[in-house]
Amino acid sequence: MPNELGPQLRAWRGTRGKSQLDLSLDTGISQRQISFIESGRSTPGRQNVMRLAEALDVPFRERNSLLLAAGYAPIYSEASFDDREMQGVTNALKRMLRQHEPFPAVVMDRYWNVLMTNDATPRFFGHFIDMAARPAPRNLLHLMFDPSGMRPFIPDWDLTAKSLLGRVLRESVGRAIDARTKELIDSLLAYPDVDAEWKTSATAENTPVIPLSFAKDGQHLRFFSLVTTVGTAQMITTQELRIECMFPLDETTEVHYAELMNTAQ
User: Fold this and answer.
1) N- to C-terminal Cα distance for the chain?
2) Number of alpha helices (DSSP H) and beta strands (DSSP E) in the chain
3) What distance in Å separates the CA atoms of residue 18 and residue 7, rounded to the nearest whole number?
4) What pLDDT sits at residue 132?
5) pLDDT, tens digit, for every residue of 140-163?
């Protein structure tokens, strides 16, 4: 396995746009030594693997891969979201979601799979589609791209789809597009009337935020999102969590949203 380290390290340098000299200056490891590692002529010690990974801002999951490729045991653990050791984090997330009522808020994993929501989220989306008919774990991106999901209720859907694809690329953990993220993007591009060029031509509106709009009973509801991550994460699970909270973009939306949520589904 050690000979797998060189290509991985070289790929991460390319992702971060760093030369061997840049990496040498960042880590204190000689450029010659880095060259030897990438060519397979040298295997670094565990400490140097971690120094290289830190300098390249490699996510925890991929740091484990670098360690394994160098012949060392992985050091970052991955717990299930409902494991006991995650209880403190999940309790804090539940409080955050409750405090965001009456507006939708969700906790997602690295691949936009919804792990937890507040009460407002299924109530809001349930006004548009039958959420119970969608299997868990529900994926927020598939919900937006699927013609049987929220897509028919999104005005200017093609512009929204472009911006969402752009978010996948910008907000991926450690700005790294791994195999599962590529699979997710490919599955979104497979939906009808989705142009493969959208993933490279996503553009932002000339506004402070990119709105996400929904149409219901002739009313347009415009929201924007705030995305939060867990600070000082020490394990894979917590590093890959993200909390997305939706806010009304204007007073009109806030009024119509309240009216919508006060009606029976």
Assistant:
1) 56
2) 12, 5
3) 15
4) 87
5) 999 999 999 999 999 989 988 988
Is residue 66 a contact partner of residue 58, using CB atoms and an 8 Å limit?
yes
CB contact set of 139 (below 8 Å; sequence gap of 6+)? 111, 112, 113, 114, 184
pLDDT digits 0-9 by tens, 72-81: 999 998 888 8
The residue type of 206 is N
**Amino acid making up residue 204:** A
Residue 95, sorted as left (phi over 0), alpha (psi -120 to 50) or beta, turns out to be alpha
129-153: string of b/e by CB count within 10 Å (b at 16+)? Answer: bebeebeeebbbbbbbbbeebbbeb
Angle 185-188-190 (CA atoms, 0-180°, nearest 5)? 110
The C-alpha torsion from 193 through 194 and 195 to 198, rounded to 10°, is 140
- In the numeric block, the tokens 């195999």 are attached to 179
Q: Which residue type, as a one-letter code, is found at position 7?
A: P
Which tokens hold the place of 171? 């907000």
